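W.,

You were right to be curious about this one. When I first looked at the sequence I had no strong expectations either way, so I just let the prediction run and decided to look at it fresh. Below is the sequence, 70 residues in total, followed by the output.
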Amino acid sequence: MRKRDRGATAANQRLLELEWKSSLLGRAVPRDDPDAVRSSLVSLLIEGSSLNVRVDPNDRNSVTIDWAEN
């Protein structure tokens, strides 16, 4: 996981660019674009930890962090 501050804000919170790697059933899932995530959520992440994610059943390469479960 890598995070970068690009200076953008939303709802008075800093947005950080978050790059992360994921795997599904032991297979790496390619991620092309970083996600813009509120700094308050990014601060909850611990490098090297496991996260719950959601996978689009129609596109196994479409993976997002399930913030409600983490």
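Here's what jumped out at me. The CA atoms of residues 28 and 66 lie 18 Å apart. And, maybe more interesting for your project: The chain has a mean pLDDT of 84.

Coffee later to discuss?

I.
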